[in-house]
């Protein structure tokens, strides 16, 4: 197997965006970094086959896939630091884009405190892949002037301010919200009309992708009836209404 | 030159995300689609060298680079339809991710109305690349639970509701705002403290990248003094404050 690793890397950590699903949604730069990896730490939501792109690396799975207990964040950080200090190139692969909801901020701070060089390689976040699956723009200009990516899973176990988020008029892309989708949509119904378009896309960007398009009032029930669960992105807003035409037109293909 | 085009494509359009700058920030899927392109329509903000990845394609520049008048949207759509109906594979390359602020919604609708198959290939939006350049997470969980991508350039020439956007507590990533940055920051100062961290990243994700980190009160002047102009992303929020430590630590490298 040829590796294409022609970069001189030693003693550093690459925070690498593994994208939303299929491995061909990684960037060319990510593929190059993986080819040069000595140690590969694979996160929960990253494609489990990503180690096939890192033939020289020792792969360590640090997620909770398979019902195991999640690897503590502090332990992951210690692993990265230890291997980097040995002069190895550590690649930390995170699902989606590493800079969105990925604890990257804490990891960067920990590495920086140890004087370890950090490279960041961007990628495709699952909210974008969800829109691609639905065949729509996240920000169709007839409907809105932006999109808000928000996690339903807060550090203090509280809730985001749904009324404030609704008041922006932006498309809402809600991550990590499936376990409380009924509560989220109920909260949003206090601010948005019941017929506001809504969708759920599970496993966006992968062969397992499943989609439901509905309304804010019905999406929790419809997603439940279609047996959609985590990981998924919940999309809400006028721009999502374009999906109904798009999907029914049947002209949309996923891959190039 | 070998092309690696081993996909049977004919008579369709691929809306392709060209990423924020450097060509190696394209996805592997995007590179494969380009290798199979017969016609390549290159947008304003896409890397002008993207045609090097499409050796079999006739490249047509449809942006306003070089001071030429912008190609009208309707004309671009007619071009796509005409070539696709000839059985050619048309690749429409847009800067960043095609599904964010890219008129993709209108193009998908026009193609759908003609019964033309559309494939969408996601990519890296410049807001993510800007955060990578600053060495920060967009959503450090000590500071916020999300990020809002918003365009300052509205269809009706109005302004986004800056007070509503500020009230979400999310990081704000403002696109196409450099020509009115003073007005935007003045509007936000009605809702946010003067010392709120702020940054401008021009040409994010490319070798020409320039960055200024400052505060909401000073960023317009500081970006002006540093001669930063379009295209740039303006980032505002507590999470951006991590950039000051990150950049001064000097440990951050861009590429893998």
From TrEMBL, chains A, B:
| Species in which this protein is naturally found | Candidatus Burkholderia verschuerenii
Which pathway is recorded for this entry? Porphyrin-containing compound metabolism; siroheme biosynthesis; precorrin-2 from uroporphyrinogen III: step 1/1
Enzyme Commission identifier(s): 2.1.1.107
Q: Does the keyword 4Fe-4S apply?
A: no
Q: Which UniProt keywords apply?
A: Methyltransferase, Porphyrin biosynthesis, S-adenosyl-L-methionine, Transferase
Q: What is the lineage of its organism?
A: Bacteria, Pseudomonadati, Pseudomonadota, Betaproteobacteria, Burkholderiales
The Tetrapyrrole methylase domain sits at 12-219
Pfam families of this UniProt entry? TP_methylase
Q: Which family does it belong to?
A: Belongs to the precorrin methyltransferase family.
Query: Could you tell me which SUPFAM superfamilies the record lists for this protein?
Result: Tetrapyrrole methylase
Protein's recorded name: uroporphyrinogen-III C-methyltransferase
- EC main class here is transferase
Biological process annotations from GO: methylation; siroheme biosynthetic process
Molecular functions per Gene Ontology: uroporphyrin-III C-methyltransferase activity
Decide whether keyword Iron-sulfur is in the record.
Answer: no
